[in-house]
């Protein structure tokens, strides 16, 4: 069993930045960030494998950066140039295997999920 704890959410103005962090209780092989806005489906934002391969949703490319600290079982999501449409609950997810790039943003690939951290971007 892997427990995930997110932190770093909050309220920020449009154009601002936030850094989300996720701490895992054990080694994982693929970690990702998903988000879900009210009334919307949960969508993948960014993912990273233990060997450092990254995948981004089109909405995140050029603005968000996912990184990890394997020694601490942590993953981070640096979000810059935030927009009101980035407002959502952000969830950390983990899998105990390395997925291929097309699958890394698929919700069904992940068994372990955090409780989420709210990100609100005001206009």
Give a verbal description of the structure:
The chain has 123 residues and is mostly beta strands. It has no helices and eleven strands. The protein has strands spanning 4-7, 10-13, 18-24, 30-36, 43-49, 54-56, 64-69, 74-79, 88-95, 112-113, 117-122. The strands form two sheets. Strands 2, 4, 5, 6, 9, 10 and 11 form a seven-stranded mixed beta sheet that branches. It has a four-stranded antiparallel beta sheet with strand order 1-3-8-7, with no helix packed on it. It is globular, with a radius of gyration of 13 Å. The relative contact order is 0.32. The mean pLDDT is 96.
In short:
This protein is mostly beta strands. It has no helices and eleven strands.
Shape: globular
Order of helices and strands: EEEEEEEEEEE
SS summary, helix count? 0
Q: Which structural class do you get from the secondary structure elements? A: mainly beta
* Average pLDDT for all residues: 96
